[in-house]
Design a protein that fits this description.
6% of the residues lie in helices and 49% in strands. It is globular, with a radius of gyration of 15 Å. It contains 2 helices and 10 strands. It is mainly beta.
């Protein structure tokens, strides 16, 4: 979306092999999205996919604004769609809002495969869709 700006901690867009029109972007362990403050209660629509099968503990995505957690999502083995309420108060008074996306744990494919996968990027979760709509 042109409304949300992927700031720090994002990898380039990749296409779904079975559906080249459908794209995602990997986060790193910490990534940010910025957007104009709508100054109204809103809903964040988010479709994400994790890799929880790689870990002994749950893979959790935490979303926060200004140090305040607005949601924590435990990743499932398949991509999932979320409608998350974001209050006007949570977005503060500044003209722009920075949403911090933290993934725990993140991973590096080359490290968890003992080099069988040469990908050295730090990966968090796949973001297929992100959109903020005022209520």
């Amino acid at each position: 979306s042109g409304f949300l700006i992927f700031e720090e901690g994002w990898h380039a867009a990749e296409a779904v092999p079975e559906d080249p029109e459908r794209e995602w972007r990997w986060t790193m362990g910490r990534s940010t999205i910025s957007f104009r403050n709508p100054r109204a209660d809103s809903t964040l629509f988010l479709e994400v996919g994790g890799r929880p099968e790689l870990f002994d503990e749950p893979q959790v995505v935490t979303l926060s604004i200004g140090g305040t957690e607005i949601a924590a999502l435990e990743m499932a083995p398949e991509a999932s769609f979320h409608e998350l309420p974001v209050t006007s108060a949570a977005m503060g008074q500044d003209d722009s809002v920075t949403l911090v996306v933290t993934v725990d744990p993140a991973f590096v494919p080359s490290e968890i495969t003992d080099g069988a996968n040469a990908d050295n990027r730090e990966l968090g979760v796949q973001v297929f869709y992100a959109f903020l709509e005022t209520n």
